[in-house]
Amino acid sequence: MSAVSRPLSDAVTPQGGLRPVSLPRGRRGSELAMLVFAIVIMAFAYAGVGFGLNGHLPSGLVTYVVGFGVLVLGAHLAVRWLAPYADPLLLPLAAVLNGLGIVMIYRLQESGRGNNPGAIIPTLTTHAAITQLLYTAVGIVAFVATLALIREPRVLQRYTYTLGTIGLILLAIPALLPASHSAINGAKAWIIFGGVQIEPGEFAKILLAVFFAGYLVSKRDVLSLAGRRVLGVDLPRGRDMGPVLVVWAFSLLVLVFESDIGTSALFFGLFLGMLYIATARTSWLLIGLLLFLFGAGVTQAIFAHVGERFTIWLHPFAHGNEYGSSFQLVQGLEGMAFGGIFGTGLGQGEPFHTPLVQSDFILTGFGEELGLTGMMALLLIFALLVQRGLRAAVAVRDPFAKLLAGGLAFVLALQVFIIVGGITQLIPLTGITTPFLSQGGSSLLASWVVIALIMRISDTARKPAPQPIQDEGLTQVVRAG
Amino acid sequence: MNRSLRRLSLACLAMFALLLAWTNYLQVFRVNSLASEPGNVRIFNLQFKNQRGQIIAAGGRQQQVIAESKLIKGGIYQRFYPDPMAYAPITGYDSVLGNTSPFGVTGIEAAENKYLAGTSSNLTVYNLKGLFTGHSRQGASVYLTIDPKVQAAAYQALAAMGKPAAAVAINPSTGAILALASYPTFDPNKYATQDTGQLAKIDKAYRNDPTKPLDNRALNDTFPPGSTFKIITSSAGFGTGRVANQTATIPAPQFYHLPGSTHVLTNDGNAPCGDGHPQIILAFTLSCNTAFGKLGATLGGPTLVKYAQMFGFNNFGRGGNAPPLTIPLPVTPSVIPPGLKDPAFTANSAIGQFDDLVTPLQEAMMAATVANHGVLMRPYLVQEVRAPDQEVVQSTQPTQLARPITSQQASYLTAMMESVTHNPAGTAFFTAGPAATGGLDIAGKTGTAQNGPNNTGLNDAVFTCFAPASNPQIAVAVIVKGGGFGAAAAAPIAVKMIQAWGQH
């Protein structure tokens, strides 16, 4: 569509030569239809677990399906009210992942219990799935609250440094707490008090994305323009390297003091991705990558727990590793291979062999029981989610919102890449949750907040242009959008 | 910023494309290599998910299930052996180690593993049907030729004797094995445990047991045949024409000075053998060592070896490198020194001493050959294999294995073996004769083999026979290690088996 034929659209086209935003309708009806489909998928998967385990419809079918259905339909109603123009695909995609996550946790919790085949997973209680449903409720409340509190993305920009500081503090707390209040399975990434476990990194991820967006918006001109050109690469000025080095150093600190390689890589990746969006300078990516490789190389040489990751990755079956340090990885790999193309069927595989399969390794459970087919479907759902997030970033005018949406979408992609790559032996394994699927409230809550933020930005982008107010045909007043 | 956003979304696309490609690689191309990792617990556990086929003793009027898989707690299958001790030498055991260990599965469980586990290509059609009808893979059932009554009688008699022993019964006209018992034996149920630690303990205990309960004495243990070897020496005499028929006389000195040796061969109790020139039937009935030792020496070592090999010795003359006879359990070949030449050794070999060694199955094959008019049928244990829908996927047809003697010569031997039990002077008259057995018409031969260094050990008792002599339908061989006289220790066990068989 040319600008000539649509002069009005052209007027609301954000800078940067974007296509005009067509069809500024909410399409909430489509969202509802897809949501119902997501609930149906969840219901069938849940029933399938029962049939797979012991040939009967599982108890609690109504509870889970109705509970889950009410929650996501409630979210839908909130969206109709709070963000009527938001991308209709985001909520159903998140919902189907969340629903399947509950189903898999239920399946794992039932393993070996009652007359079900398999072994009991000692790290899963009999109320793990219902707890996950409860977390879903909390997550959706947070989703609605985010939409309700943040009516304009730019509101967040005002709190750039406040939120950034809170994010850094959250990230640093586990390192400062004694291990008894912060360490689970070797990773010192938790805040544990009185049976409540919070993974602050999940929330810090969002806060830091906001902080980076605010910071980069104000500094992007200098970061993207100043500097010299050397060998075809635009090098930034030395003094502008400061923030990059600070974030790099901070992520290394997280790595060293919290033994949390996944979170560390995620933060650094998030920052680099947003820096690139803001500046469009490849040199930043190169510098970042070099810094990352240097940091990884040095830490793996110095710190045993980092070096071990490389050994596990390269030689999972060597020297009896498969019964020792690489046991979890090997169990996951063998499980996924056992599932093959079509999988064993829900409830009919043996995912319980993989330690903590309900957490970081939950996708190996899906890979085993739903096969390559299910894995590809889940990966495509994640890919779609990322793509819709980036689309919202492209569509929105406001640079801050653009950076924020781009950063959140990118960090989602990065997180999926790190964990799926890790459990499939593509890259060294680092402990990190699978968004929406893994057991745990922090991860789920944070994931829903991310979706809410992306939907808020999407809503802003797709909102119809303010109509000129006709004042007796004399003056046109255009309300700022 | 949209240009960089678009580039970044391309990077995201690349990451997801890489994940998709890599997952394909893992779940399609690495499936086989990961499945064959020795520690793959999922592959190991497959054995508990499919119902393994039954093993059924189906050679009698009533069938008896001797191995079956039942669902236990946790929805997995476990192997059960309802009559474990009596059938252990036949069924063997199926442990959780299965094919992953050389000792993981034995006996029929090992020999028919493909059918029992349901992985045989003969079951492909059935398993494909299962894809559509929804049943999980199920193993085929193996129907054995074993007659439960004869088997029970054999095992009970052996156990009552309490000495290392074995008994075999064959249908002479088909080669179908009706009973195959060994003592002492083991409990295969103990091997069916799911606990590998427990399994290792049990296996170690059995292997260290000095009574060697895991040995299958009927097929894989060899004993000196003693006087039962005179069946072969006689066959050689008839076959070469040296002895015309059972009434022809042969020289039988009271003391036979072995040629080229200081050793003197005597009869039991240094007794004379008739008038020194008895009919061969009398020498056989009295089991004269001098008569058959001299006959063997006269025939010569190579002739004796040739006839023994026609009956199955030395793996039918093919030696140890050729594949052994399988029924389908592998059978240890019986031995006669293949280069036998020295007349003194030949004389000893002709009466089943020197280095002759037989398995109980070989003994039964000798009697069965005589019973079946000189034709040795291939012994077999598996009658047929049936898919879970009862369709027969494999069945055994009786085949001829060898024909060491003519029908005529077999009738001479039948008369001689009948005399052993019917003639009041016969070595088995008091234990297997008509009066002792309630009128059974048994034809047999006793053997009492000296063994141990300088023959100081307890004699092994051997008895091989068939019944009824006029219309043979069952051939039985029993060997009791250290049992003493064959007639006293072994013959009564054979009689009990024939009686059990005759109750049909």
What can you tell me about this protein's structure?
The complex is a heterodimer of chains A (481) and B (504). Chain A is mostly helical and 481 residues long. Helices cover 64% and strands 4% of the residues of chain A. Chain A has 16 helices and 6 strands. Chain A has a two-stranded antiparallel ribbon with strand order 1-2. In chain A, strands 3-4 form a two-stranded antiparallel sheet. A two-stranded antiparallel sheet of chain A has the order 5-6. Chain A starts with 6 loop residues before the first helix and ends with a strand. The N terminus of chain A is likely disordered. Chain B is α+β, with helices and mostly antiparallel strands and 504 residues long. Chain B has a domain of 264 residues: DD-peptidase/beta-lactamase superfamily (Beta-lactamase, 3-Layer(aba) Sandwich), CATH 3.40.710. In chain B, 40% of the residues lie in helices and 15% in strands. Chain B has 20 helices and 15 strands. Chain B has a 6-stranded mixed sheet with strand order 3-2-1-4-10-11, covered by helices on one side. In chain B, strands 6-5-15-14-13 form a 5-stranded antiparallel sheet, with helices on both faces. A two-stranded antiparallel sheet of chain B has the order 7-8. Chain B is elongated. At the A-B interface, helix 10, helix 13, helix 14 and helix 15 of A face helix 1, helix 2 and helix 3 of B.
